[in-house]
Specification:
The chain is α+β, with helices and mostly antiparallel strands and about 290 residues long. It has twelve helices and 14 strands. About 35% of the residues lie in helices and about 25% in strands. It binds flavin-adenine dinucleotide. The site of flavin-adenine dinucleotide (FAD) has 29 residues, from strand 2, helix 7, helix 8 and strand 10.
């Protein structure tokens, strides 16, 4: 049963932020409600005031500029990201990630902002956005601040939002030349939450094919989406070989104490991270070579 609450449906971000600054900890935002209603039904959250931001159309957009990169409004639904031609052309990994996120029905209603703010380490977008070095714009009535996506998740279902703040925009920089990015997750059935997932971005130096930069992010391998920095270091400054890809997978598998649940033991997750980091890094490398 859901506890009683007072409901607001602001039509502008300013109005929503003003409600948040008035009610602070007693208020919660709801966007698509796909995760929020679950935690409310479980009484994990019992807000006195529910601020429904789904009607704020100004936060539903996808904009691209080669210099500034990609800007996605927090209320953009997953399906719009999946189907966006500009994303398919310039950030195909985002579209590919969305194709395996839940079902079309879920993607047609759930928002990218809600997904990130829910703070589920098994969520797909956060790892991909970390690999893409994306930033998040957080707004309050007092102003705005920008945080790295990898700094946003604090713990299981916990993110770096102050009670008076909301996420308004996801900012993805245009990758440097000769960069390839890929993401895959281990699913029993297409659209399942990943048992583990790996997102990898590789940038090659022009000419000699040496790895100039690498970013590796893992989903559902820790209490937050995890950047595997030790594994990245194994790749940077070297010509990447099959042996080096395997080494990066081995190292990544030691960078956290993974959870154990009905979907897989900690040991199984470690083994799968070895496989997925190697496989996804190989694909990212192929893409970087072709870019
Ligand atoms: C059947 C099913 C399958 C799913 N499978 C997957 C999957 O495979 N991979 C995956 O990644 N996800 C999956 N999801 C999650 C889904 O992707 C939704 O994006 C996610 O549930 C939250 O989106 P929402 O818009 O419904 O947010 P809500 O449920 O409305 O909100 C979620 C949380 O974020 C907060 N919030 C929402 N928007 C903002 C904002 N702009 N600023 C501040 N706080 C905000 C809310 O207060 C709440 O705490 C699945 C969901 C369902 C129901």
């Amino acid at each position: 049963m859901i506890a009683d609450f007072e409901y607001f449906a602001p039509k502008t971000a300013r109005e929503a932020l003003s409600l948040l600054s008035r009610y602070k900890e007693e208020a919660k935002i709801i966007a698509g409600g796909q995760s929020m209603l679950v935690v409310m039904k479980q009484c994990l959250l019992t807000p006195e005031y529910l601020i429904d931001i789904k009607g704020i159309s100004a936060l539903d957009y996808i904009k691209y500029d080669e210099g500034k990169g990609l800007r996605i409004g927090a209320l953009t639904i997953h399906r719009a990201i999946e189907k966006s031609l500009v994303i398919q052309d310039h950030f195909r990994v985002l579209s590919e990630m969305e194709q395996n996120l839940a079902t079309i029905q879920t993607r047609n209603w759930g928002t990218i902002g809600g997904n990130l703010c829910h703070g589920d380490p098994a969520g797909d977008p956060a790892s991909v956005l970390i690999a893409l070095n994306a930033k998040l714009k957080l707004a309050s009535s007092a102003g705005e601040r920008i945080v790295d996506t990898e700094e946003f998740s604090k713990d299981y279902l916990e993110v770096a939002l102050e009670p008076n703040e909301m996420l308004t925009e996801i900012q993805v920089p245009t990758p440097p030349p000769h960069t390839g990015t890929a993401y895959e997750k281990l699913m029993v059935m297409r659209g399942d939450m990943g048992i583990v997932g790996a997102a990898v971005s590789i940038t090659l130096k022009p000419g000699d094919g040496v790895c100039q930069d690498a970013r590796i992010a893992l989903s559902n391998f820790a209490s937050t989406p995890l950047r595997a920095k030790k594994a990245e270091k194994r790749l940077i400054g070297k010509v990447i070989t099959e042996a080096l890809l395997a080494e990066a997978g081995e190292v990544a598998s030691t960078e956290a104490n993974p959870p154990a649940d009905v979907h897989g033991s900690a040991e199984y997750r470690r083994e799968m991270v070895k496989v997925f980091v190697k496989r996804v890094a190989r694909l990212a490398l192929e893409r970087a070579r072709a870019a």
